[in-house]
Write a structure and sequence with these properties.
169 residues; mainly beta; OB fold (Dihydrolipoamide Acetyltransferase, E2P)
Length: 169
């Protein structure tokens, strides 16, 4: 039996990036994403809208880049996978769970409405990709407004020796 866990989302950040580091020094960024859906109500012929709020986890170099360039309101396209976290509530002892998305690729789409900071009219497939192991551009050069970052299937091994020169941006 085949399995597939793939999520594609496009929306705007609901808050500034929350950056943390694990005890081993690996970067973890948490972002909130608002994804809007619009449709026409067939009974009233009125336009309707619903918003879905999604929590996103971003790891390692991709997390540091997200922290550097994204903030509340910025538009992004995210490819990732679903992850279910479960724990016991300390106060009540009840089982708790939360579904989130672990980002594997992120593309910056620019400011909402195409304002300063980038191409608001970009398409997810049209921007160049920047994969984690490619040679890095100069640190002084900012990324293109439409920029996609690639990651792997989760946090990398703890024993990676990452040199500052090899980190893009």
């Amino acid at each position: 039996m085949a399995n597939l866990n793939k999520v594609l989302l496009m929306g705007n950040l609901t808050r500034d990036v929350e950056m943390r580091y694990t005890p081993s020094g690996m970067a973890l960024a948490r972002i909130g994403l608002a994804v809007n859906r619009k449709w026409r109500d067939t009974k009233t012929n009125e336009m309707r809208e619903e918003v879905t709020f999604v929590d996103i986890e971003v790891w390692d170099k991709m997390a540091e880049t997200v922290n550097q360039y994204l903030s509340k309101g910025k538009a992004v396209y995210i490819e990732g996978r679903l992850k279910l976290d479960t724990w016991d509530d300390k106060a009540t002892g009840a089982k708790r769970s939360k579904m989130k998305v672990v980002a594997e690729n992120i593309q910056f789409l620019g400011a909402p409405g195409g304002g300063p900071g980038g191409g608001g009219q970009s398409s997810p497939g049209g921007a160049p990709r920047a994969q984690g192991n490619r040679p890095a551009p100069s640190r002084q050069a900012p990324p293109a407004p439409d920029h996609e970052m690639g990651g792997n299937d989760g946090p990398p091994p703890e024993d990676l020796d990452i040199q500052e020169e090899s980190v893009p941006f």
